[in-house]
Structure formats: C-alpha cells, structure tokens
Design brief:
By secondary structure, this protein is an alpha/beta fold. Helices cover 39% and strands 23% of the residues. It has one domain: Collagenase (Catalytic Domain) (3-Layer(aba) Sandwich), CATH 3.40.390. Strands 4-3-5-8-7 form a five-stranded mixed β-sheet. It has a four-stranded antiparallel β-sheet with strand order 6-1-2-9. Strand 7 and strand 8 form a beta hairpin. The chain is globular.
C-alpha cells in the first residue's frame, strides 16, 4: 500500500481484498491465522481496537481471523503465543509486521504498507504496515490511529488472500483515501463491496486446495 500526498488527498495503491457477504455460521467460516510481529511499539489500547475492528471487517465478509502475537511484548498477552509462533506456517497462515517506513521513501509517494504476493500462485504470506505513515495520516484526518491502522491491515490481508494488485471501484478497497472520508466515516467507504465478497472466499479455498495438492 502506498499513499501519495498532495493537494489535500492521499492515494492508496494496493492489492484487492475481496470478501464474502454470504451469511455463514461462525464455526464453518474459513479461518486465517495472522502472526504479528512489531518492530514499532503500538500501545495496547490502539492495538486492541485496531485488531478488533479488523476482525469485524473480515468477519462480516465471512472470514474469521485468529491472531497470534509473536512479538515479545505482545506474545506475553496471549496464552501459548510463543509456542504457536515456533510452529511452521501453514497455507492458512500469514505474517503481519509493523515497522517504520523506509527512509528512502519519496516525499510525494509515502507508503502506508505493502504486501509480498506470488501472482502466479495467487497467494501471499507477508504484509507490512508502516506505523509512522499510519500515524501521519491519522493526524491529517484528525481521527484515532486505530481507525487508520485497522483499515490498512484489512486492506493488506486482502493482498495476501487474493495475490493480486487489482482494486475495487468503491468501498474499503478503492485506490483513493482522502482525510475527510475518515471524518465523514460513511459505512460504504469502509466496508467490502458485496460483489467482491465471494471472490475472497473462493481465493481462500483455492489456497487450501493448492496445499492439499502439494501434500498428495
């Protein structure tokens, strides 16, 4: 994800997060395991609100999130966190890291985050959020940091699930985010477009099917 600052707007480029609007029982929903690592410290209050909001977005889309906090200052808060972090990642596991943006980032093209995806396999494992840029945008928009952080994380998890850089025309996965849109807080701006929902679920199941083929 990259944010272009200029003339009062932020343009955010990143892959597509498409989710399912189909109702599903909680226990039957696909579960994405998100292992988190933070080189930049996020306050407990901000982190709790951010992952709660991210979980809600994906839950409405039909995807459950299982958070495993692997950073030393987070793992202690989660029972058996360190042990789970030592287990090799599976096809339903992804890694999320929280760091600072590279110092070499151009001033007119500042990243909020990015994801590493294999477009040939339509899958990805690593997403990165640049906390200093998230904090900067939150300041510009005059909203809490967790409001921007949650939406950025949800966006990047979509990258990993779909392995694509395509965008939606509207909703959370649109390519342009303006500070005033955070203030207005219109639900249609921060939810997943219904048309994209089924594609996310299908991509998740293809991800698991690919793993089964490899094992067999």
């Amino acid at each position: 994800m990259r944010s272009v600052a200029g003339r009062g707007m932020f343009v955010i480029f990143c892959g597509v997060l498409v989710t399912s609007s189909l109702a599903a029982a909680k226990e039957t929903r696909p579960t994405l395991v998100v292992r988190t690592y933070a080189a930049r410290t996020v306050t407990t209050a901000t982190w709790t609100k951010a992952i709660g909001a991210t979980t809600a977005v994906l839950n409405r889309a039909g995807i459950r999130l299982d958070w495993v906090h692997c950073s030393s200052f987070r793992a202690a808060e989660v029972e058996r966190g360190p042990a789970r972090c030592a287990v090799p990642t599976g096809r339903n596991d992804v890694v999320l890291r929280i760091i600072s943006a590279p110092s070499s980032a151009p001033r007119d093209l500042v990243p909020l985050g990015d994801s590493m995806v294999d477009t040939s396999q339509q899958s990805g494992m690593l997403a990165t959020i640049y906390l200093d840029r998230v904090e900067w945008l939150a300041h510009e928009a005059a909203v809490p940091v967790d409001a921007v952080l949650a939406r950025a994380i949800a966006h990047e998890l979509g990258h990993l699930l779909l392995g694509t850089a395509a965008h939606s025309a509207r909703g959370l996965m649109r390519p342009v985010w303006r500070p005033e849109e955070f203030s207005l807080n219109r639900p249609s701006d921060w939810t997943i477009a219904p048309a994209d929902s089924e594609q996310m679920r299908l991509a998740y199941h293809r991800r698991l099917e690919a793993s089964a083929l490899i094992v067999n």
